[in-house]
Amino acid sequence: MPAPEHLAVVIPARNEEKLLPASLASVATAAQTLREQYGIPATVTVVLDSCTDGSLNVVTGLQPAWAPELELSTVEGSFGLVGAARAAGIDAQPQRPGLWIATTDADTVVPRDWLVRQCRLAGAGYGLILGTVVPDAADLSARELAVWELQHVLEEGHPYIHGANLGFSAAAYRRAGGFAPLEAHEDVDLVARIKATGTAWIATDETRVITSGRRDGRAPEGFSRFLSQLLAR
Predict the structure, then answer these.
(1) Which positions ≥6 away from 223 have C-beta within 8 Å?
(2) Distances 199 to 1, 45, 88, 111, 156 between C-alpha atoms, Å
(3) pTM over 0.85
(4) How far apart are CA 135 and CA 227, in angstroms?
(5) What is the per-residue pLDDT across 101-117, written as a single tens digit (0 to 9) for each?
(6) Where are the alpha helices (DSSP H) in the chain?
């Protein structure tokens, strides 16, 4: 497939006022790096799902500083399901040719070259990119971090699927039918359907992101629960 012409980052958030600022700061840096290197514009959409804290204030407080170089917007609703929240953020994007979508989470920090690397891989012909996720070492003890590292081999061709680190063309997303309104594993479900359409894909460690190592995450069967179960062994 040709290199992306436009890029949209979609971030679901439910009561994430504490972690959202760092996540957005990292995404802004990645978007600015993309624009500097390739001239590709990016938009960032935060999907505020049933938020009762100051998450909206975090986003609105940042908007003046981001404009006009980078568009930061919100979608608000009571979606209740992470799959529905991710879908709402993508549905809010204008139907542009050459649109690439990157998804992450509000408790996740992405590297500076996160979007640059996705665009390079998209330009190489991949319509789906599966990235890796590691827990924030600051949230784990030395023993817990050692257990994590023992259980995970982060390399090219890895077996992991994380909604906190996905990239795909809007065309591939539409062909697959989009995110289903699932409470958990919406990422695994979507990836299976995109693969079934014959879209070229790659699982890579080149786009590795860092996610909070908390054990009280928002998704009932998300990364935080997986981490809790792993470290309890």
Answers:
(1) 105, 133, 135, 162, 164, 211, 217
(2) 10, 25, 23, 26, 18
(3) yes
(4) 8
(5) 999 999 999 999 999 99
(6) 20-38, 55-66, 82-91, 114-123, 142-151, 170-176, 186-196, 223-231
